[in-house]
Every structure is written in C-alpha cells, then in structure tokens.
Write a structure and sequence with these properties.
The complex is a heterodimer of chains A (108) and B (120). With 108 residues, chain A is mainly β. Chain A has strands at 4-7, 10-13, 19-25, 33-38, 45-49, 53-54, 62-67, 70-75, 85-90, 98-99, 103-107. In chain A, the strands form two sheets. In chain A, strands 2, 4, 5, 6, 9, 10 and 11 form a seven-stranded mixed sheet that branches. In chain B, the strands form two sheets. In chain B, strands 2, 4, 5, 6, 9, 10 and 11 form a seven-stranded mixed sheet that branches. A four-stranded antiparallel sheet of chain B has the order 1-3-8-7, with no helix packed on it. By secondary structure, chain B is mainly beta. Classes of the chains: A mainly beta (108), B mainly beta (120). At the A-B interface, strand 5 and strand 10 of A face strand 5 and strand 10 of B.
Chain lengths: 108, 120
C-alpha cells in the first residue's frame, strides 16, 4: 500500500501568519490527493481534492499544491478557526486508500 | 444538507460481535458508494471498508478482512458494518463516509462517528 507521511507532526504558528503543511507519498500518485481538516469533537471536513481544487465554500486562503510524491497545503493569514488537525489522503491506488498521520496546527 | 448519523457508543468483549449502522439523509443515497473509516489517537485515520452504490462490490482493509462485513439497504438509506471476532486493536471511532464517486475515492461527507471499545 502507499504510505503517506506528513510533516511536521505539530506546527505552531501565530494568527495572521502563514502555515505550510507537507505530505509525501511513498510512490507517484499524480494529483490524486485530498486534504481534510478536523477540529476537536467534529468529523473530518474535505478541503481540497485533485491536489489543488478547493471544495465549494472553502476560503481561498487554503491552497493545495504538488504532484507526484510531494504535496503542500498552505494556509495564508491564519484565522482562529483554522487551528485544527490536517490530514492528507491518497486515492491513486485503492483499496486501500491511505491517510497521513496528521499535522496538528496550534496557536503559537 | 447532507447528514450521516452512526449508531451509538458500544463496549464489547474481545472475540465479540456488533453491528454499526449509519443513516443517510439529504442526498440520493443509492447514487453513491460509501465507506467506513476508523480513527484512533495512535493510528489516526484508517480506511476500513467500502461498498459500491448497489452493494454489488465490496472491499476491505487487510486488518479486518474476514472479520468485518459491509452492507447497505438503499430502501432505508442505511449503511452497515458487521464486526466479528473483535480485538482490542479494533477500538476506535468508526465514521461512515460518502465517497465522491467513480475512481476518485475520497470522502466528501463524514458522520461524527460511533465509538467502539473492545475490552474485557
């Protein structure tokens, strides 16, 4: 199965600053990557798919980039509601589709 | 509004069985493939099983193959997961999730989850 590795495990950033989260695939997955946001006590929420396409209603401060094995999710000008755990997921080869272990974005 | 609501919290002994349910609303259920994804603090999100729109095709993670069975009842807008021969490592929050579609196997809607605890 394809292994997804996210870094860092925890990222401390001040409100208003930019955060960049990384996700690496163990093999080429093209652009078959999705990003999710999860807040405490809530279900994951799909943010982007196709590596860079934002879901309707997701603010444009969320930007996904990358292809092949290296991907990033950049959140420009962090708002208080953006502090959460973020997961990447590949859907190039399934079953199984696989998730990264998550990056916790916390307030600095 | 799309809603997915899983059955409630359950405690079961190792080796035991239980069935999870997920009721869907706000969309045409039989237009979509569905999946179960579980979540633990240690392992994060793990895809468990998936089923196509009419129940004719199913898939399982290796960790649950032969022990879990996914099914659906489109007349009741419901998704199920039968969990047999449970192990302590199956302890997790089980989410049902709607698959976006086709070969694009990502999840555009999720339920809040049903907590399964396997403990003696």
């Amino acid at each position: 199965e394809i292994v997804m590795t996210q870094s860092p495990a925890t990222l401390s950033v001040s409100p208003g600053e930019r955060a960049t989260l990384s996700c690496r695939a163990s093999e080429n997955i093209g652009d078959n990557l999705a990003w999710y946001q999860q807040k405490p006590g809530q279900a994951p929420r799909l943010l982007t798919y196709g590596a860079s396409t934002r879901v309707a209603g997701i603010p444009d401060r969320f930007t996904g980039r990358g292809s092949g094995t290296e991907f990033t999710l950049t959140i420009s000008s962090l708002q208080s509601e953006d502090f959460a755990v973020y997961y990447c997921q590949q859907y190039y080869k399934w079953p199984p589709c696989t998730f990264g272990q998550g990056t916790k974005l916390e307030i600095k | 509004e799309v809603q997915l609501v899983e059955s409630g919290e359950t405690v079961v002994r190792p080796g035991g069985s239980l069935r999870l349910s997920c009721v869907a609303s706000g969309f045409i259920f039989d237009n979509y493939d569905m999946s179960w994804v579980r979540q633990t603090p240690g392992k994060g999100l793990e895809w468990v099983s998936g089923i196509n729109w009419n129940g004719g095709s199913t898939a399982y993670a290796d960790s649950v193959k032969g022990r879990f069975t996914i099914s659906r009842d489109n007349a009741k807008n419901s998704l199920y997961l039968q969990l047999n021969r449970l192990r302590p490592e199956d302890t997790a929050l089980y989410h049902c999730a709607r698959v976006y579609g086709g070969s694009f196997y990502y999840f555009d809607s999720w339920g809040q989850g049903a907590l399964v605890t396997v403990s003696s």
